[in-house]
Design brief:
Length: 71
């Protein structure tokens, strides 16, 4: 019973807010693939559900402007 209670009301899993996801940017010299994987990993822990198109747009907004121009 204690285990069930903890599973329901206590989680060690980090939750990510929509604001944190929006503010996630590609680091200087970070490969684009690494940034996308890092962003995706964060998005999986987001407490709010994202539509696929919204997630893609949000991820793209965090890409360096030079790469964004190429895309």
């Amino acid at each position: 019973m204690e285990r069930e209670f903890l599973n329901i009301f206590y989680s060690t899993r980090r939750t990510v807010s929509m604001m944190e996801l929006t503010n996630t940017k590609q680091w200087k010299d970070e490969p684009i693939v690494d940034y996308i994987n890092r962003w995706r990993s964060l998005s999986l822990d987001c407490k709010d559900r994202l539509l696929e198109i919204s997630a893609v747009e949000m991820c793209i907004q965090g890409i360096h402007w030079g790469l964004l121009y190429i895309l």
